[in-house]
Amino acid sequence: MKRFADADPRRLLGVAALAAAALAAILAPALHGSASVAVVPVIAPGELRLDFASTPPALPFLALIALVVPAVALWCLGRGAAGDGLRLSLFVFAMLGVLLAQSVAAFFLAWETMSLVSAFLVGAHHERRDVRRALLSYILVSQLGALAILAALALLGAHAGSFRFAAIAQAAPSLPAGVRSFAIGLALVGFGSKAGLVPLHFWLPRAHPVAPANASALLSGVMLNIALYGLLLAGFVLAAPLPPAWGITTLLVGLLTAITGALYAAVDSDFKRLLAYSSIENLGILTSALGLALVAAALHLVVLTEFALVALLVHALSHGVFKSLLFLCSGNVAEAAHTTDLEHLGGLRRRLPLTSALLLVGCLAAAALPPLIGFASEWLIFTAFIRALPAMPPPIAALVTLAIGTLAAASGLAALAFVKLFGIAFLGEPRSAREIAVERPDVAFAGTAWLGALCLLFGLAPALLAGRMAGAASSLSGSSVFDAGPLPVLPMLLAALPVAGAAAALLTARRRGVRSDATWTCGSAVTPRSQYTATAFSKPIRRIFGFVLFPDHQETRDIGSSPWFPVRIRYAPTTRYVFDEFARNIAATAQRLARRSRIVQAGLLRVYLAYAVVAVLIVLVAAR
Asked: CA-CA-CA-CA torsion for 310, 316, 322, 325, nearest 10 degrees?
């Protein structure tokens, strides 16, 4: 009790604000009616209003906030910085605003607030250069995406004659197909950039790792899923119905994102960056399921549409829970070991036993192993694709077959990444002489334990989660015949097999008198130097996929240049990737254009007055 009495009042106030945000997420579904506030009634009477209401598609994401935020609040109470809670609570309230928004003005205001507050979270340690570079990348992509989202919503609202979502959804089927297609294309760019979809993913493995662990938990665990909600809203409500081509496009983008994120995670050697790449992989899986649902909806396969949407929503909640758990555990590791570099971590299981147990739960869930939540959600997604095979036309069925193989490969790479993460960091012997204090239970442990318990609970009773998601999915698909198949008992049956095998092996060993001894290497004792490193563990993957990874040596080579867009590929000691280098060139070009445009800001009052006169004349001419 003395620890709480001596706590910084700002920390307690922040945790209270986070608790209020979690309570708001719990009570939000009761907001059935539309709460409306006028913004500028003189300019657009009755249209430019802030409308908020609870809708079925938003309920799963509200539930995710309600489940994750209490854990983050407890972690902040035990280990967070003094001002973290207030910033995080504002971030959570902004995400609630996005989920409850029912007009273009309300949605864009909440979206920009969410982006602005998240930028402050990413730049919490702005004194470091790598944080400033990550923040610049994030702001650049975030604002470009926001412009695409605003253009898409404004286009739909202008053609529908109203900027309220209910009116846009009602008018959507009668809108020209070209308008709906252009709007969904803009939405895919805007929401996809926030979700970290390839090729706009480059900001995510830079921004999320440099943020504090509690912020990273909400950024990766919740905000990315909020971006997925935006895609779901655009594809099934505001711009529906869509032709199959857009579903196929979304599916292909999702597959490329999933395999790219899994490959990056498998070869990376930084704890938090590996988790960020895993988030890219999981958002790719979710986007693939969304693409399948869009294709099924376009072909009027309502039962398949509902199943794919249930799988998507279950995996979205699953990913939010286990990824938040993993990022909070990474914060425990960073605080204890003062590094997140896997090359310098090892033997943490004996010093951090509580974090070790919870991280193992998170890694098993992320690797989709039974009986944890990740297995149930990925099993539903694979089942949706398998059920689509006989229902689709042959060309699309071939694409579905490719999707199954790609997702299986991504899942295998993800499993390898998390075996590497836990094995290198927590097993074996310490790799440095730094003394790490033995972990003791505290209030932060209660937060991570809550998320670990959810991973186990929903893994053991997946039908409980899938049944709740079916209501939201049926509101979008028009079907209400969801059948989970053998899912209710499958995780326990599959988990029992290795347990039974291990028990049989132990009994056989005891009966035969098999003895155990210390591990040795060629007759010598094992030393930390003889252990596998993270780089050595993933070396086979880098050799196999070398055609898409840059070589690991220092070299700079120009392959073409121009005054406006010099193309330069830089090879660094750490692995660099094609999309990262392309993104750097784009960012450098934007900075160069911005510097050259400074000429219009001369600092002279008469010049600015001339600008104002010209602007007034343009407005008068346009008004005529």
From this structure: -140
61 burial level (CB within 10 Å; 0-12, 13-18, 19+): buried
Q: At residue 145, what is the residue type? A: G
| 178 or 495, which is more confident | 178
Please, are residues 469 and 382 in contact by the beta-carbon 8 Å criterion?
no
Locate 69 and state its tokens.
């935020």
Decide if 446 contacts 74 (C-beta within 8 A).
Answer: yes
From the list 418, 411, 413, 362, the residue with the least C-alpha distance to 382 is 411
Quote the CA–CA distance of 348 and 362 in Å, as a whole number: 16
Angle at 149 between CA 190 and CA 400, to 5 degrees: 45
For residue 429, the SS3 value is coil
- pLDDT digits 0-9 by tens, 577-603: 455 556 666 667 777 776 766 666 666
Q: What is the pLDDT of residues 487-515, one digit of tens each?
A: 777 877 787 888 888 888 888 888 887 77
Cα 90 to Cα 110: distance, rounded to the nearest angstrom: 11
Rounded Cα–Cα distance for residues 337 and 343 (Å): 12
- Tell me the three state secondary structure of residue 196: coil
CA end-to-end span of the chain, whole Å? Answer: 71
pLDDT computed for residue 565 by the predictor: 34
Cα separation, 301 vs 251, in Å, equals 17
Q: Are 190 and 235 in contact (CB under 8 A)?
A: no
Q: What pTM value is reported for the model? A: 0.83
Structure tokens belonging to residue 418: 């998390």
Residues of the chain by 3-state class (helix, strand, coil), percent to 5 = 70, 5, 25
- Would you call the peptide bond into 394 cis, given omega within 30 degrees of 0 as the criterion? no
- Given a contact cutoff of 8 angstroms between Cβ atoms, the answer to whether 210 and 134 are in contact is yes
The tokens describing 359, both together, are 């991280």
CA-nearest of 303, 192, 305 to 250 is: 192
What is the pLDDT of the chain when averaged over all its residues?
82
Q: Which of 101-110, 434-443, 470-479 has the lowest mean pLDDT?
A: 434-443
Q: Which residues have a Cβ under 8 Å from the Cβ of 104 and sit 6 or more positions away?
A: 150, 153, 154, 157, 163, 164, 165
DSSP string computed for 524-538 = EE--GGGSPPHHHHH
Confidence check: pLDDT of 311 > 90: yes
Closest CA to 318 of 373, 257, 381: 373
